[in-house]
Amino acid sequence: MNGRYLATRLAHSVFVVWAAYTFSFVVLYLVPGDPVEMMVSNGGVISVTSEQIAELRAEFGVDQSPPAQYLTNLWHAVHLDFGRSLQRGQPALDIIAGAVAPTVALAGAAIVLAVTVGWALALWATLTRVRWMQRLVLLLPALGVAVPSFWIGLVLLQVLSFRWHVLPAFGDDGPRGLVLPTVTLAVPTAAFLSRMLAQSLSRVLADPHVTTARAKGLGRWRIHLHHALRNALPPVLAVAGVLVGNLLAGSVVVETVFSRPGLGRVVETAVTSKDIPVVQALVVLFAIVFVTVNLLADLAHHLLDPRVTLAGPRNG
Amino acid sequence: MSGTMTVGEALGERHRAGMVRRGREIGGGLLRQPMLAASAVVVAVAVAAALAPGAFTGSDPLQVRPAAKLHPPDSAHLFGTDQLGRDLFARVVHGAGLSLSCAVIAVLVGLVGGSLVGLVAGFAGGPLDAAIMRAVDVLLAVPSLLLATTLVTAFGFGPAQTAFAVGTSSIAAFARLVRAEVMRVREQAYVEAALAAGARHLTVLRRHVLPHTGGAVFALAALEFGGAILAVSALGFLGFGAQPPSPEWGALIADGRGYLDTAWWMTAAPGLAVVLTVLALNRISQAFESPPVPRR
To answer: Of A46, A287, B77, B195, which alpha carbon lies 20 to 30 A from B38's?
Structure first.
């Protein structure tokens, strides 16, 4: 762990966030030609006079040249100002801040569930000596990555809420209401994780050091948990940022299915009403989550395997 | 010319014999792997439904019959009817065209865009490669669903727009794979030999590098095809894709959302269509990736 490495790594993270901002600026402010026209014509504001449009133009800076617009917006964004939501009139960041808590609770629960189930399946599949059992266990993740998560949610609702009345269907009242959305959100990640970990584990189990451990007479569990797992983790850590990002983005459909408040709903309504400042702030927020998770994963990689020199940034 | 073949004919003959052998290998492989064969059948049926929906059903997917609304599945309506009395089987079959063509466009956008980026980066190397891959990394920093919705915000709603958005969000994956493959192939002796013999870079790229990157790229394309169907259906479910009344699998599932309690078939039928197609495509992608290992 040295300061210089950390500094390069942080600089790279800042670069990625800046690039995500720039990319979203190009897509959202330059591609549509006139973003104000687009936002207004999309039902965000019911009736607008031409003066109001001019006012909005001035506020969004669309009357300036693109480079000037970009620099002004970037300057504001650095000061945590992404502009006001056209739909609700509040600052975009306030809307997002107000929606973070329910999504963090949901995503946190889903991550815990996905990691637990993913590991359990991978360990089970590689520990069992029964060939058909192994195939059967590995069938689950294959199924999990092929099923649209919103459909899982709807089927769970249908069976558990409407048919059997076991769990509440909608709303965010307490932990019972969290069960179905958590399961729905966790399935794709759990499936991906278990598949990857099982592949990585079976590769490591063929390594010479595992043969040595076996020759020394160590038990299967001990070999698995102490000798193989540690070496099987790095490929999984390398995709941690993408996994967490996708799980968070999955809240868009899951929160829509279960009519829960949260970040996902903010994304959905912002896109539907073409609320550009909110969409852009969300893109930057997700990029920040991505680089943070990747930074943590890299540090974890170093702790797992001190031979990793931490010489240069790998990605994100 | 009695009984002897020219060199060209002989080569053609050898080529044909090779093709026949390869065909037998694939056919035999299919027989030994029933899941793979079933997957091929599922994809074939889905593609046939997309190309010629009329061959599967005579019903009009848009015809409203108020008297027959929310009818459970029976022999007349295989998948039942929806809240407007439209035949759900016809809607799912006709939906295949829209869902699959969106997915095909998405994969093509990702494949062509990603391959170009990856080829240039992998073949050029040096600072250009570093700059390009940095840009690709940024695409990975935004989750694909959010990236797709951001693009849809700018380009507007509709099936073509969602297809383009989904394709763009898969460019990064293709670019990384193609670059890695190109870098692997360009280290081979025959590439060096071709370059030393004075072949132009573009020729080497086309004749020697591209053919050897095909397998892995095909596997990814098949996998991304399934992923694209899922992504397109997710955007359709959110209402950003095909607009009513045109049938699209994701939008059909969304239609059934209000009738979970009373008409389970409205979500079940289109959902199963998505699941089966994606499962089959993932299985086929796996076959591309790893040739069947002989049993020990």
So the answer is: B77
Structure confidence by residue, pLDDT tens digits, B119-147? 889 888 889 999 998 888 888 889 999 99
Q: Closest chain B residue to A32 measured between Cα atoms?
A: B154
Asked, for residue B296, whether it belongs to a domain, the answer is: no
CA atoms within 13 A on the CB side of A156: 24
Q: Evaluate whether residue B173 is within a structural domain.
A: yes
Longest dimension (CA), chain A: 83
Domain count, chain B: 1
Q: Which residue from A20, A142, A143 is facing B142, i.e. has the nearest CB? A: A20
Distance CA B213, CA B43 (A): 24
B235 assigned to some structural domain:
yes
Question: Is B257's Cβ below 8 Å from some Cβ in A?
Answer: yes
Is B149 in contact with A250 (Cβ distance < 8 A)?
no
pTM: 0.86
Whether the CB-CB separation of B82 and B69 falls below 8 Å is answered with yes
We report the CATH number of the domain holding residue B259 as 1.10.3720.10
Torsion of CA A147, A152, A158, A160, to 10 degrees: 130
Residue with tokens 């390869």: B22
In one-letter notation, the amino acid at residue A278 is: V
Between the alpha carbon of residue B264 and those of residues A200, B80, B83, B268, the distances in Å are 40, 10, 12, 6
Q: How far B137 CA sits from the closest chain A CA (Å)? A: 6
